[in-house]
Input
Amino acid sequence: MGLLSVLPAEPFSDEFIHLQPPIHTLHLHVDAQCLKRFQLEQADEMVLETANGQLELLVLDQKGHPAFEYIDILTPAACLITGAHHTLAQLQQESSTADTLQKQLDQYQLTTQHLQQIYFIENFEMLKIKTKAAVQVFVLNTGPDLDVTTPTCLDEIKVTIHKTQPVYEYLPEPLAKPVQEIHIPCASARTYTVKKGQWIQIIDISGKQCSDFLAFDQQALEQGVEIGLDAVSTRTILGQSTPRPGLHSRFYASDMQSMVEVVQDTVGRHDMFLTACSPKFYNDAGYFGHISCTDNFNQVLKPYGIAARDAWPAINFFYNTFVQDCGSIGLDEPWSKPGDYVLLRANRDLVCASSACPDEIDPSNGWMPTDIHVRIYAETEEFKRSQHYRIHPEEQPRMTMTSGFYSRISALTSKISEYKGYWIANEYDGWGSVAEYLACRERVAMLDLSPLRKFDISGPDAEAFLQYALTRNVRKLAIGEIVYSASCLETGGMVDDGTLFKMGAQNFRWICGDEYSGTWLKQKAIEQRFRVSIRNASTQIHNLAVQGPKSRELLAKIIWTPEHQPTIEKLAWFHFTLGKLSGPMGIPLMVSRTGYTGELGFEVWCHPNHAEQLWDAIWQEGQQYQIAPMGFDALDMLRIEAGLIFAEHEFNAQTNPFEAGIGFTTPLKTKEEDFIGKQAIQNQNPASRQKLMGLVLEGNEPVHHGDPVYAGRYPVGIVTSSSNSPLLKKQIAMCRLAPEYAQVDTEVQVGQLDGHKKRLNAKVVTLPFYDPERTRVRA
Output
């Protein structure tokens, strides 16, 4: 997201005092193989950080003319060369990344002449730039597609902008060319009409400012009938209770037909359907005559013949409410930051009304009302559905991504949800989770696991660093070998778990679940001054899990390996090989004998540009084995039966590897060297540790993550994961138990409701439930 408009801070006065802190620094980033534009004022400073030590830069003045002389490069060691060599190399590829980059160039109207004004800069870790005048700076993080068989990749560029003049408002760059722009001053409301299919972007330009939203069927209004957003219809159709922080995916009218759908949301916390503030609210608080959103709505809706109300039910964007255990509703300052927004799509012709809430008597607007901005985009535009997320609290939101396999997945299922910043399939139409599970147990199934994060770690200190950062003994690894490990905090609590691939003598690839793992590793490398490069390859390496008894036979038919690499037939458990699809001239692949199912299985890794070709090859060859696509619902059943752990269920930052059931990853005696968390784990009395065990439930009633486990009146543990086991034909669960009760055949109860009014009998068993000797996965 570039900067379209950063509004200068207003001077303080006796009549107007800003309670929100001014913005002195903006934290942004440029994704790999992309470009972004940044608007800088005179004397602003820009800091660019990248593990690659290189980038391309284009500087234009406000009229679009080359203006590289308007900036000073404050990093003396940086090498400056003319020419857009990496950009041209990416554009010359016949790939989707070339198409995407060309669309970005077209968006900013950058021509071949502009590319001739680009400078290539290298040999730096942190590049500092200071402007002499107002300029547009284009940062190009470009280059050819990654070969997944090599341990090098483009990482994102971290961008920090230090403003000379602090600002209070941040209006993000338009998502496309707007057809309407509506500015809503604080303590007011505005109406606007929207055609069916058009897009509505509601932007909090200062942060912590609520905006109530109303919508009415325009054609019905013209006939004198009010059909507007309706809370009861919405909750009934979607099967949701209220209130709940967040947003429904769609909002319905009183005629039970959809009004708007939510397409993007950069905040994730809103009030569902309390009323907009009303005169009664302020009168009851002792603020008689205070202006309210309801008053403002009544005024601006009057020309449409809409009757006034004492309180308007509305979607309260950015309003931070929550439900306490006793059922009462509390509120706090909104989570929204300057520039955060919600993007809606109109499902019919609408008359809409938006407010900038005037409430300054509580935290609902951060104690000081500010403005709201609305943009309308044409129905011909297309925007990806996204639940934005942030890796670091201060950065701009990131959009939910689609893997390279998404086109194939979305053609087979409508049951899609967000996971770790990606859209994934829950289950597939015509199969269902049980059929997908059985395909994996009996034949073969394929699953998109691209949300896994991949970090390439290289350099002269790579092995020494990983020996310090991970719990496993990395020095024992051979090239081509993989090891499962934990990474821990100094307290012994787990940051993440993952698999480490040894790509070369000084090159490793860490595959884990949490993107913050890379940030954690970078912080530790800097603190301890290891000479190591850590690059995020997640967007450039996507992967399919091919799991089941027939997986080896299937992949052996379509994957070619050179003489110096193991064949699929000979690939050992927890090893990988490098090869090509369908022959020596095929697309490059990495194949590992790993998985998350407890079955014989493999993971196949490729560049996203090759994902569809890989999916099609596996799918076509797999027909003779009755292959099934598999979603995450089936995967959950498989991994629970196999006793495999999951973040924020079996482990978190307060759980060490022994308590998470993976003490084998932490060789306290045989790994003599120190590693992060070792001392804290050694200080713990092993006999006092809670243990991860299994539960087999009586009856068919399900239990859930977080349910307490009781022995008599008092709790002795907690359910971490649960599932119905098609194998055992019983309800099963993984749980963390006090050591006194972590004994096989101990009888316990899972407490539901208040823990006492409903008890489900269970018996403690060892893990895994399925194939305890791991003979299937080692086959």
